TrEMBL record:
Membrane association type: Multi-pass membrane protein
Subcellular location field: Cell membrane
Gene Ontology CC, one term: plasma membrane
Any Pfam family: BPD_transp_1
Keywords: Cell membrane, Membrane, Transmembrane, Transmembrane helix, Transport
Protein's recorded name: Sugar ABC transporter permease
TM spans (from-to): 12-35, 76-97, 109-131, 137-159, 180-202, 243-262
Matching InterPro entries: MetI-like (IPR000515), MetI-like_sf (IPR035906)
Gene Ontology biological process terms, A to Z: transmembrane transport
Domain ABC transmembrane type-1: 72-262
PROSITE patterns to which the protein is assigned, alphabetical: ABC_TM1 (PS50928)
Predominant place of localization: membrane
Similarity comment text for this entry: Belongs to the binding-protein-dependent transport system permease family.
Amino acid sequence: MRLNYTVMSVFKYFTLILGAFAALLPLIVVLFTSLKSRAEMARSTALSPPENWLNFANYRKAFVDGNMLVGFMNTVIILAISIVGAILIGTMIAYILSRFEFFGSKAIMGLFLLATLIPSVTTQVATFQIINDLGLFNTRAAAIVLFMGTDIISVYIFIQFISQISQQLDESAMLDGASYLTIFARIILPLLKPAIATVLIVKGVNIYNDFYIPFLYMPKTELQVVSTALFKFKGPYGTQWEIISAGIMIAILPTLIVFLSLQKYIYNGFTQGAVK
């Protein structure tokens, strides 16, 4: 029995170390490359540590010449408006579907699930025509409207949390004369902070990493976001991997900081949603 436990423990830690190594190896290579000069790149291997750990010349060149400041500004604007809108829409839908019983509520949930099963590539022509007809092409509003679209994962997370909130709170507030909007704004929404943090991080990372929508709907140079700014290194710096690697590290840094700061909310949100 003790032998089996020891073997299982060794196997568990071996697989965890192997998984961590596979996940971190590309990042380590990119980090090492970003700190090397072009000459050092030519005479060293990908896994060789840089000679000077404080060589940030590639970062400066990537940030300034790659115009990444504009990319970060556009990303922050799109991200902030999209996240706030998506959370408001998602919490309202979840509140209605979990608290009210009406004809067609289950059909609405079914349609949400059905929409997630349709390959997004099959609707791109129609989506592009709608955005173009609305006059949103080549504006930040195009990406904001598309990112604000409610996704079933967010709604599902909110529904799981709302179902844990006692309906007696709603009834007590109604006896005091509170309207449904007041109950939602002053009782439900504050109690959804862990779920909101989870959706904020998960959806925020998806928006931050998304390349397709900004590339297709905002081709103007002054509208570039971080992902499309990074893609533009492909042209002038096509073979300068040290510059490209520095740009990648700059793009990774904000996501990494946010994730490490708020990771407990992500785990709590998914765990509480999973046990229901």
